[in-house]
Amino acid sequence: MKYWLIKSEPETYPFSKLKEENQTFWDGVRNYQARNNLRDMTIGDLCLFYHSNEGKEIVGLAKVVREAYQDPTTDDQAWLVVDVAFEKEFKNPVSLVEIKKVPELQNMVLVKNSRLSVQPVMEEEFGSILRLSESEK
DNA sequence: GCCAACGTTGGC
DNA sequence: GCCAACGTTGGC
Question: Which residues, by CB, come closer than 7 Å to strand B?
């Protein structure tokens, strides 16, 4: 089982919409590094759902339910999507500001390369984020 | 709204 | 194949 972080601007596709629809295909990735990460996802992998620009916080979890296939929104063979399903909404969203205060999370791709829209997450990092999401502020 | 960081494009 | 110029993303 692998862990990931996927980013979306709330204006484009907020987590609340995933909750409402229960499942969606993750389209719009137009970056090779991000594409490669999509390709490496397997069914059952968990993704931290991050709101960029507005919010700047991890708001919940999504689960990979279909592995990479041709992006239906383009004919360009280069691009892929995966299907993800709503998994869990965090009781307490974990903000970027909080993450930056945690020493063991300084190596997260989110901190190091904030522009990458689909990124791998270490198991320990994933665990730390979950713990933060459960602790009261 | 600004700008740093990163990725892509295209001239040479 | 190098690198300058440009475009985009996203934190601040």
Answer: A 31-33, 112-113, 115-116
